[in-house]
Fold:
Amino acid sequence: HFKEGPKHEWPGYSLNLFTYPEHYHEDIENVYIPHGLIMNRIERLAHYITEDFWDSNIMVLCFVKVLGRNSNRYLETRVEFIRYKSYLNDQSTEDLHIVGNTDLSFLRGKCVLVVEAIVDTGKTMQALLKHVQTFEPKMVKVAGLLVKRVPNMAESLTDYVGFEIPNRFVVGYALDYNEYFRDLNFSFMHEDR
Ligand SMILES: Oc1ncnc2c1N=NC2
Structure:
């Protein structure tokens, strides 16, 4: 997936180009990926996913449903959420703690798309995929909106990548730092930690 990119790192956009909650002014460094760009990229991923899943029902996904309305094909989708905790402050913990229901037997024989906001070390995703496989789905693919470039990254776990980003902590657009910054629902910010 990841061609060796240019060595310079994308500097992000200056904060004064955007409006964002006052209470975050001291904590964020720049706008890394604005909302509009995220939306455009997600639509492209939905195109690839719809092609790959062609005539199978998809167990987990919402944005393909929108694409279904625009194109003449509608893939029935069902969305289930797996809540888990894998981060303490900004360090990934080793193990996967699934919160709530761990019985995923509804996946048996199904075409599953695991949708993750961010794939970092890949440890959580590997643990999640191992757990999903025990329920013998027909197919499992992974969509990650953000995938970090981390040293000796496990073979690419992600079939659909929104944005490949440097190995730095980002917040916003549902990504949090100990539950802070979740309400930055319009873009990613580099958290200068
Ligand atoms: O950079 C990150 N920002 C928020 N949450 C997570 C991150 N990486 N793994 C989980």
